[in-house]
Amino acid sequence: MEGIVLIYASGHLLIDSRVKAAELTARGLCRHSRTTIDKIINIEIFRFMDIEQSIAALNNPTRRKILEWLKDRTNFPPALPEHTGLDGVCVGYIQEKAGLSQSTISNYMGLLKQAGFVVAERHGQWTFYRRDEKKIQAFLQAVQNELLKD
User: Fold this and answer.
1) Average of pLDDT values for 37-53?
2) Which residue has the higher pLDDT, 133 or 5?
C-alpha cells in the first residue's frame, strides 16, 4: 500500500514518505511493516498552538530579531563561568541586546515560547532561551501547506 500515512505518537503527528514502514516500526511509530509511504513531510502538530498565534508572535520586529540573534550564540556576550555548559542564552543578555525593559523582554519571550519558537530552561535564578528548530521548521511547513493547498 502506498500513500500518505499519518502516525500519531507522543503528541506528534508525523507524515513521512519514501520511508519504509519497517523503519518507522523500528522507531516504534508504526505497527505496519509492509507499507511504503508516499510523501515526505515532517510536521509536528502543536497541540495548543495554531498558525495565527505563531504569526502574531512574529508580528513584531524585535521578536523576529531575537529569533535571528538566537541562531548564533556569538551574538551575545560569553556565558558566565558557571553557565558555560548550558544551552541557550540568558534572558539578561537578550534584554541587554534588545535595549528593552525586563518586563517587555519577559513578555516577548513568553509569546515566542507559547508559539513554540523557543525553549526556556531555568537554572537557578536565570532563564535561558534557545530556538526550537524542529518547531520552527514545522511552523514553516504548516504555513506553506496552508498557503499552497488546493
Assistant:
1) 48
2) 133
Question: In this structure, what DSSP letter does residue 89 have?
Answer: E
Average pLDDT, the chain: 75
One-letter amino acid identity for 62? Answer: T
Q: Cell for 81?
A: 563561568
Cell numbers at residue 25, please? 516500526
Q: Which three cell numbers stand for residue 114?
A: 507559547
Return d(Cα 150, Cα 61) in angstroms, integer: 31
Bridge partners of 5, per DSSP, are 16
User: Residue 75 has what DSSP assignment?
Assistant: G
Nearest to 57 by CA among 135, 146, 4: 135
CB 79 within 8 A of CB 87: no
Is residue 70 within 8 A of residue 118, CB to CB? The reply is yes
pLDDT of residue 125: 87
Tell me: pLDDT of 69 over 90. Answer: yes
Question: Residue 7: beta bridge partners?
Answer: 14
Cell reading at 15: 507524515
Instruction: Return d(Cα 111, Cα 63) in angstroms, integer.
Output: 9
Is there a contact between 88 and 40 (Cβ–Cβ < 8 Å)?
A: no
